[in-house]
Amino acid sequence: ILHSVSYTLLCFLPVLLIPATCKLITVCIEDDNDLRVDCLIKARPNKIASYEFSWSSGTVESVINTNVSGSSPEARFRDKSTVEELEDGGYRMTLTGFTDTLPHNTTYMCKVTGASDDITVEKDKLIACSAVTFLIKSSFSWFISLLVFFFYQTHH
Ligand SMILES: *[C@@H]1O[C@H](CO)[C@@H](O)[C@H](O)[C@H]1NC(C)=O
Ligand SMILES: *[C@@H]1O[C@H](CO)[C@@H](O)[C@H](O)[C@H]1NC(C)=O
């Protein structure tokens, strides 16, 4: 819950986080050096849920993991990636063994039931997932402090 509330805050209050755009996709590196892509697009309730994670560098798009019927991931990713459903909606894809050999500039894409988002991240700019969690938590508590402050100001 805290997680989804904070993501929403980050979308509507870009002042709290310097890169202003609200993205439904985040990319980070886990402690064990796996690449994690979180896709926060929620499946529409009346549709069959499906997901597809892919990336491209240059013009070539490679499917990493998918359960869209009729679509399949590239063979090199087959035993290397897993997808789990996120509690608050959306999907998390984890990819093992490619972090060190990423091209300089990679565009990560995800699709959930037809809706899609993408983000381009340079290899050097990938951050640790632990840092992301910290950032979200700290901007959330920052926001609460701000609310308390305004509440206090207007009621005294
Ligand atoms: C894809 O996976 C999700 C989550 O496991 C599941 O709910 C959905 O039905 C799957 N979709 C297809 C087309 O198999
Ligand atoms: C990386 O990709 C983005 C978006 O396609 C592009 O604007 C940027 O110039 C690229 N950077 C490098 C160093 O190639």
From TrEMBL:
<feature type="domain" description="Ig-like">
    <location>
        <begin position="14"/>
        <end position="122"/>
    </location>
</feature>
<dbReference type="GO" id="GO:0030425">
    <property type="term" value="C:dendrite"/>
</dbReference>
<keyword id="KW-0732">Signal</keyword>
<keyword id="KW-1133">Transmembrane helix</keyword>
<keyword id="KW-0812">Transmembrane</keyword>
<keyword id="KW-0449">Lipoprotein</keyword>
<keyword id="KW-0325">Glycoprotein</keyword>
<keyword id="KW-1015">Disulfide bond</keyword>
<feature type="transmembrane region" description="Helical">
    <location>
        <begin position="131"/>
        <end position="152"/>
    </location>
</feature>
<dbReference type="GO" id="GO:0043209">
    <property type="term" value="C:myelin sheath"/>
</dbReference>
<dbReference type="GO" id="GO:0007155">
    <property type="term" value="P:cell adhesion"/>
</dbReference>
<dbReference type="GO" id="GO:0045121">
    <property type="term" value="C:membrane raft"/>
</dbReference>
<dbReference type="GO" id="GO:0005925">
    <property type="term" value="C:focal adhesion"/>
</dbReference>
<dbReference type="GO" id="GO:0005178">
    <property type="term" value="F:integrin binding"/>
</dbReference>
<dbReference type="InterPro" id="IPR033292">
    <property type="entry name" value="THY1"/>
</dbReference>
<dbReference type="GO" id="GO:0051894">
    <property type="term" value="P:positive regulation of focal adhesion assembly"/>
</dbReference>
<dbReference type="GO" id="GO:0005096">
    <property type="term" value="F:GTPase activator activity"/>
</dbReference>
<dbReference type="InterPro" id="IPR007110">
    <property type="entry name" value="Ig-like_dom"/>
</dbReference>
<protein>
    <recommendedName>
        <fullName>Ig-like domain-containing protein</fullName>
    </recommendedName>
</protein>
<keyword id="KW-0472">Membrane</keyword>
<keyword id="KW-0393">Immunoglobulin domain</keyword>
<keyword id="KW-1003">Cell membrane</keyword>
<feature type="signal peptide">
    <location>
        <begin position="1"/>
        <end position="22"/>
    </location>
</feature>
<dbReference type="GO" id="GO:0009897">
    <property type="term" value="C:external side of plasma membrane"/>
</dbReference>
<dbReference type="GO" id="GO:0007229">
    <property type="term" value="P:integrin-mediated signaling pathway"/>
</dbReference>
<dbReference type="GO" id="GO:0030334">
    <property type="term" value="P:regulation of cell migration"/>
</dbReference>
